């Protein structure tokens, strides 16, 4: 069975500060992991994904995430927060043998000017 | 290339009614998945269609159903609406529905039940 835990439903950072959003997964098989962002009144936009290969994954808008199997983690980072990064972020794992995603409960990021 | 299009964007219904939501996937995408998003339960998978066949189903009652047409467009139907069905319904498409491929989401249909 697959599941995702996102620690911290709300995270606030100052503009220009490091962004760190935490995600831990549970999977009985090698996971496929994703980070999505959702802006108000919009759908989900893919930031990045990990399937196989390099464990440090770079995504759009300066975000990256590192797959750490030993820690069952896939934390999302960005060196310098921008006001436009304020949104809700979802970590997801895909189900083995199927296409559907299991999502975490989301982390709302606030960027303070 | 046009993205995933969902219609309508907003819908208000009353308890006991039924509703049909529509999703047009990205051109060439054959897999369409539906998700329900609520403040209490978060994002939950409803079902996936591929080549007009339901390939996978989440843990929702039979009041929730869907179908896919030969052009890959999909509809989702909810019968006998309940207050708890108020949610944002998101549709996502991908090329062939392999889990290696990312799903592209529409902006959703916000359904409010009075």
Report on this model:
- The complex is a heterodimer of chains A (113) and B (114).
- By secondary structure, chain A is mainly beta.
- Chain A contains no helices and twelve strands.
- Chain A has strands at residues 3-5, 10-14, 19-21, 24-26, 33-38, 44-50, 56-58, 64-68, 73-78, 87-94, 101-103, 107-112.
- Chain A is globular.
- The model of chain A has no long low-confidence stretch (mean pLDDT 92).
- The termini of chain B are far apart.
- The model of chain B has no long low-confidence stretch (mean pLDDT 94).
- Chain B has strands at residues 5-7, 10-13, 19-24, 31-38, 42-50, 53-57, 64-68, 74-78, 87-94, 104-105, 109-113.
- By secondary structure, chain B is mainly beta.
- Chain B is globular.
- Chain B is 0% helix and 53% strand.
- The A-B interface holds A 32, 34, 36, 41-46, 49, 51, 90, 92, 94-106 and B 4, 6, 31, 33, 35, 42-45, 48, 50, 55-56, 58, 90, 92, 94, 97-100, 102-108.
In short:
The complex is a heterodimer of chains A (113) and B (114). Chain A is an all-beta fold and 113 residues long.
């Amino acid at each position: 069975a697959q599941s995702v835990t996102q620690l911290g439903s709300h995270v606030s950072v100052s503009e220009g500060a490091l962004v760190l959003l935490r995600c831990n997964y549970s999977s009985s098989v090698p996971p496929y992991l994703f980070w999505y962002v959702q802006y108000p009144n919009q759908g989900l936009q893919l930031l990045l994904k990990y399937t196989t290969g390099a464990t440090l994954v770079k995504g759009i808008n300066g975000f990256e995430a590192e797959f750490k199997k030993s820690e069952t983690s896939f934390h999302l980072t960005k060196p310098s927060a921008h006001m436009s990064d304020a949104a809700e972020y979802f970590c997801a794992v895909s189900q083995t043998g199927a296409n559907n995603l299991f999502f975490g409960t989301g982390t709302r990021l606030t960027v303070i000017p | 290339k046009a993205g995933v299009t969902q219609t309508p964007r907003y819908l208000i219904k009353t308890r006991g009614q039924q509703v049909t939501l529509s999703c047009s996937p990205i051109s060439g995408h054959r897999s369409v998945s539906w998700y329900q998003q609520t403040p209490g339960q978060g994002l939950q998978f409803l079902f996936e269609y591929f080549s007009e066949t339901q390939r996978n189903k989440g843990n929702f009652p039979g009041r929730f159903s869907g179908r896919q047409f030969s052009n890959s467009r999909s509809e989702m139907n909810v019968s006998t609406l309940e207050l708890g069905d108020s949610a944002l319904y998101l549709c996502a498409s991908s090329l062939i529905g392999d889990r290696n491929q990312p799903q592209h989401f529409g902006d959703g249909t916000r359904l409010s039940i009075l």
